[in-house]
Amino acid sequence: MNRPDFELKEKNYSGVTSFYRSKPHRAYVVEVGLSSPVRGEILQEAVNRTLLRMPYFSDALTEKNGDFYYARNPLPFEVVETEQLRHVGGPETNWHQMDVTYWNDTVWFSMFHGFCDGLGMNLFIEATLYNYFCIRDGKKYEVEGIRTPDSPILPDEEKDPFAEPYELPEGYSMNLFADKYWHLPEINEKPLDYMYGVPVRVKEDEFMQFVRENKSTPVAALHVIMANSVKAVHPDLTETVGALVPASYRKHLNAENTFKNCAGALRIPYRMEEMHGLSFAEQAAHARTLLRQSNDPNAARFLANRLGGALRQIGASIPNYTGRLAYLDFAKNANNDTYMIDYVGSLKAGVYSSEIVRTKYLATNIDPNFSTVTLYISATSGYFHFEIVRAFESGAYVDAFLDQLSRHGITYIREADSRYTTPENGLITGLGLM
What we know:
Number of helices: 11
Strand content: 15-25%
Distance between the termini: 17 Å
Order of helices and strands: EHEHEEEEEHEHHEEHHHHEEEEHEEH
Number of domains: 2
Structural class: alpha+beta
Radius of gyration: 22 Å
């Protein structure tokens, strides 16, 4: 399929870390399991209604002189019944950067991360599921926070939070990597060519009671559990371990309504000498303090200036995609030390929430720089779903994590292990840039 000459909209700054990569970015996918078989014609109509309210989700992305632009895309957004995930972003999805496929009782929502972030994607998913159940049931459900077909347009729904620089205190600077985190030895191994996931389910109310009793938050408490799991596998370890925690910067960057990328990462250290001799409750409370301190508005603005500024600066001197790769491929030297904790919460839903029996977040990190352990956390139908994902063979950290849950009296259900690979993005190859 030849690429149409799309009508350009605004330049994309916030997707810089996804566009300029020596290896194609892979799709980010949310798998939603329903309690009954998906009705494809209703799902298509639900997507159509979502796009009437939020037409920007049907946009294409295109490249000009090394820059990427959002572009109006008049091609049909087609929901397809298939077990195979498609190469989102390119000709296979009519150049749409979002994709919806289904099979039996499961719907997959896929996106190219240069287009939007996880919270932006959730706006699309929540609206589509809302429309699906309203159409299927012949009802108009009331759900606060979902962009329904008749909800008002909010300010800055299409704001690019990295497009303009932010003011910072005079002389402000920060070292994102002030703490040097210990690498899992498995990172240096040749990664598997698939992700290995272990799903674990715990009752939401029971886990939240455990968190409250320890005066912590879910992420901070799980950070301590993960750190102690690493210590159990490596009992002689004295170096600092740490968590990379994706976070939304919408509030800090005055972009609370945007669907576009507005995410950063909080780095939470676990310093062995600092935590030595403390009870779990003391460790969890301390981790909560560190988490709060790291979520600093100036740090968010600094990162936005750094990424958006790099694109603005390089764009003036290197007006082509290939020439920019050497300067803007930030991912090539990145590392998710020591592990990553991605807390995505729950999808907004109404009385039909009981029909949503599973949400699963799928990201493929089989590059050596990203072969660490990731803990995905979502909430559905009264349960927390922990998905412990890795790209190496050893399951020692999973076993240690489950042992930690048992030690703290947290009852869990281990579900069937999974193996998956999400497809490479179709945009960059479709544009002939790689």
